Amino acid sequence: SRSGPVMLSVISNYAVCITAHAITHQAGYLAVDEYVRSGMVIGLGTGSTAYFAVERVGQLLANGKLKDIVAVPTSERTRAHAAQLSIPLATLDEHPALDVAIDGADTVDRGTLALVKGGGGALLREKIVEVAAKKLVVIVDESKLSEGLGPHFDLPVEIIQFCQTHIRRQIEGLPSLKGCKANLRMPYVTDNGNYIADLKFDAPIADPSQAAAELSDTVGVVEHGLFLDMASVCIIAGKDGVTTTHA
Ligand code: 5RP
């Protein structure tokens, strides 16, 4: 019968999920334990890994080990999670300088700690908040590590809805992105009311700084998911434990 192999495959996928969950949990908790102190203003990232950092801040506030924290969330999802845990929230308008921000990533370049972010669609708020932080602590499992950026995970770019096909064609024609395919993420609208184009690459982006500059110069692009020269620390959860790398 076919039920045997199918069942085995379901069980083994479940095991992989449990393992990934357990290790990213460690990275999220460690980031808070190591880098968040009472009295800080902190940025809270978005995604399944950042979720654990938010959870840990909530725990430490509840048991009194952290006090006087103010947090700036990077998405409505994170805002709701943090509010549920009674974490005091603010915006950059009230607190323009953050002590630390903690967030996940879709790709981390091993050599430079340059990141691709936006798989969860929150890249614009993540970038605004994280450039305002003295320190950006990135938390990932080891599957996110890569040599270079591009083929490992499609590069998300937030674009306006108006003439989105035209904007995606413009992106595909940028000199530093030649050969990429800009696919519209559907159905998806960001917290800011925009669309996401996911750029697919067959080879690593040769010059990420140039690509970032060309994307930023494209009318209709709101922000891109290249986070270059931003991460100070990367906490990597692997099957053999957690390691920390500094930029
Ligand atoms: C959201 C992001 C996330 O940080 C990124 O997608 C990683 O998410 P996860 O930890 O769930 O893999 O950039 O916009």
From TrEMBL:
Keyword Membrane: no
Functional pathway: Carbohydrate degradation; pentose phosphate pathway; D-ribose 5-phosphate from D-ribulose 5-phosphate (non-oxidative stage): step 1/1
Enzyme Commission no: 5.3.1.6
Class in the EC hierarchy, top level: isomerase
Organism annotation: Tribonema minus
Protein name (database record): ribose-5-phosphate isomerase
Record has 4Fe-4S as a keyword: no
Catalytic activity of the protein: aldehydo-D-ribose 5-phosphate = D-ribulose 5-phosphate
GO biological process: pentose-phosphate shunt, non-oxidative branch
UniProt keyword list: Isomerase
UniProt record similarity statement: Belongs to the ribose 5-phosphate isomerase family.
Any GO MF annotation of the entry: ribose-5-phosphate isomerase activity
Residues of the full protein shown: 36 to 282 of 294
